[in-house]
Write a structure and sequence with these properties.
eight-stranded antiparallel beta sheet; alpha+beta; single chain; globular; 22 strands
Length: 422
C-alpha cells in the first residue's frame, strides 16, 4: 500500500502507439486510453496487497497515453492506507548477503539499439532511493512487523553490501514475543505497460517464509496484480500469478497453446472475487527458479513484459542471461519461451491493469505459508514444515526459532523499469 501527505507527479517517457489499421480505430484507442488515465490518476493507492513466453512479439503493442510518473512522499509509513491484502495463490548462518556471482554473458548491444528505454533504474549505493518502506500490519496475516527505512537500516535488515547489492532481511533474534521484523518496499514510480527486469543472487527461503516480487495497481483487484516471483516454505519452483477484477481469464490451460515453459495451476479464471483470491497462476517446471534452488545456482534474472497484447514472465538463470539484457538494451522479441503468459485474448489489459508500482516483501506464515504448514507434494516440499521443524504451529516456530531465518533475505543487484519508445 502507498500513502502520501503530499506528492508531485513527474511525467516521464511516453510509449509508442500500437500500429492501427484505420485512423478511426487509432482515434478510438487513444480516446479510450485517455479516459482510463484520467479516471485512475486520482486514485494512486499503490501497493495494496492480497496474497496471492517463446512468445515472439513482432511489434510491441503499447499505448502512448500511458506514461510513468512518480509519487514523492514525506514519510516512509504506509499505515494510513486502506488495508488490502494479496491473494493466496493456489498450491509453493548470519543471513548476510553474499557477493554477487559474475554474469557470464557479454554485452553485444547498445542501449540505443533497443526501443525499450529505461524509465527508472535501482542499483548500487542508491538502490533504496525511490522506494517507500511499508510499515502497516501485514495484510496477509503474517507474523511480521515491517520496519521504516531508518529502523530497518539501524537494525541491519536493509543495507547495501560489499558487492554493491541491496539486501533485505528478516530479523534473526533468537526469540521474539509476537512478530519478527521484516522489510517491505514499494517504488514511488507508477507506470502502465512496460518491461520490468530484476537481477538477484539470493531470495528468502526456508520454513515459514513467504517472499514475493510483484507489481500492483490501485483499488485491488481493479487495477490488477502481477506476481512475478512468489512461493513459500521450501518450494523450489517459482509461481507467477495474476489477480484481476471480473472478466479476465486464460484462453486455455494448455502449456502448448499458451506457448509457455511452465504449468497452469489453479484454473483459468483470473478474477480474484471468483477464485477465493487465487487468480490464475503458472508454476515453473524447473527447480532453480525459486528458493534454495535459485540461490544455489547464483540466482538469475526475472523479466515481466506487459503490453496491450498480454503479460509474460521470463526467467534466465545465471550464466544464461541474454546479452541484450546485460547491455541495457532489451530485445524481448528475441528471448526464449516465457515461463508464463497471459494473452489479452480473454482479458482486456487496459481495463484490468493500470498504474502499477513494483514491490518486494518477505512475510512469515500468513495465509499461504501458514496455510500449508503441514502440507507436502509441491516441488521442494517432500516433508512438511511441521515435520521438519518439530513445531505444529507456524507462528510458534517464528517466535522461537530466529536462527532458522538466516537464509530469509533478498540480495538484489538491480531493478530496471523500461517503457517502449519507438
Amino acid at each position: 500500500m502507498q500513502f502520501f501527505t503530499r506528492f508531485s507527479i513527474v511525467l516521464l517517457t511516453g510509449l509508442a502507439l500500437t500500429p492501427q489499421s484505420t485512423d478511426a480505430t487509432r482515434t478510438s484507442l487513444i480516446s479510450r486510453a485517455h479516459k482510463i488515465a484520467i479516471k485512475h490518476s486520482t486514485g494512486l493507492a499503490r501497493d495494496l496487497r492480497i496474497t496471492f513466453r517463446n512468445i515472439l512479439v513482432s511489434e510491441p503493442q503499447v499505448d502512448t497515453s500511458q506514461k510513468a510518473f512518480c509519487v514523492s512522499t514525506s514519510s516512509t509509513s504506509n499505515s494510513t492506507l486502506p488495508n488490502n491484502s494479496k491473494a493466496t495463490p493456489s498450491s509453493s548462518g548470519s543471513g548476510k548477503g553474499s557477493p554477487s556471482s559474475t554474469k557470464t554473458s557479454t554485452p553485444s548491444a547498445s542501449a540505443s539499439s533497443s526501443s525499450w528505454k529505461p524509465v527508472s533504474t535501482y542499483s548500487g549505493s542508491s538502490f533504496f532511493d525511490g522506494w517507500s518502506f511499508y510499515t502497516a500490519s501485514d495484510p496477509t496475516n503474517g507474523n511480521v512487523q515491517y520496519l521504516s527505512q531508518t529502523d530497518a537500516q539501524n537494525a541491519g535488515l536493509a543495507e547495501i553490501n560489499a558487492a554493491g547489492n541491496a539486501v533485505m532481511r528478516v530479523d534473526t533474534t533468537p526469540t521474539v514475543s509476537t512478530n519478527r521484523n521484516s522489510v517491505r518496499i514499494t517504488t514511488d514510480l507508477i507506470f502502465t505497460y512496460g518491461l520490468v527486469i530484476m537481477d538477484a543472487v539470493h531470495m528468502p527461503t526456508g520454513c515459514a517464509t513467504w517472499p514475493a516480487f510483484w507489481t500492483n495497481g490501485p483499488n485491488w483487484p481493479a487495477g490488477g496484480e502481477i506476481d512475478i516471483i512468489e512461493g513459500v516454505n521450501n518450494y523450489t519452483n517459482n509461481q507467477a500469478t495474476i489477480h484481476t477484477s471480473d472478466g479476465c481469464s486464460l484462453p486455455s490451460s494448455s502449456s502448448t497453446q499458451l506457448n509457455i515453459a511452465g504449468t497452469v495451476v489453479g484454473g483459468t479464471n483470473c478474477a480474484a472475487d471468483q477464485t477465493n483470491n487465487e487468480g490464475c497462476g503458472v508454476r515453473s517446471n524447473y527447480n532453480y527458479t525459486f528458493g534454495a534452488g535459485f540461490n544455489d545456482n547464483g540466482g538469475g534474472v526475472y523479466a515481466m513484459l506487459w503490453q496491450t497484447s498480454g503479460i509474460q514472465v521470463y526467467f534466465f538463470p545465471r550464466g544464461s542471461i541474454p546479452s541484450d539484457i546485460t547491455a541495457g538494451a532489451p530485445q524481448p522479441q528475441t528471448w526464449s519461451t516465457p515461463m508464463a503468459n497471459w494473452p489479452s485474448t480473454d482479458c482486456d489489459m487496459a481495463s484490468h491493469f493500470y498504474n502499477h508500482s513494483v514491490i518486494f516483501d518477505t512475510t512469515l506464515c500468513g495465509d499461504w505459508a501458514g496455510g500449508v504448514w503441514t502440507g507436502t507434494g509441491v516441488p521442494g516440499q517432500t516433508e512438511s514444515c511441521a515435520q521438519l521443524t518439530g513445531y505444529s504451529s507456524c507462528s510458534d516456530f517464528v517466535v522461537n526459532s530466529g536462527a532458522s531465518f538466516a537464509e530469509a533475505y533478498w540480495e538484489v543487484s538491480s531493478v530496471q523499469v523500461y517503457q517502449y519508445d519507438a
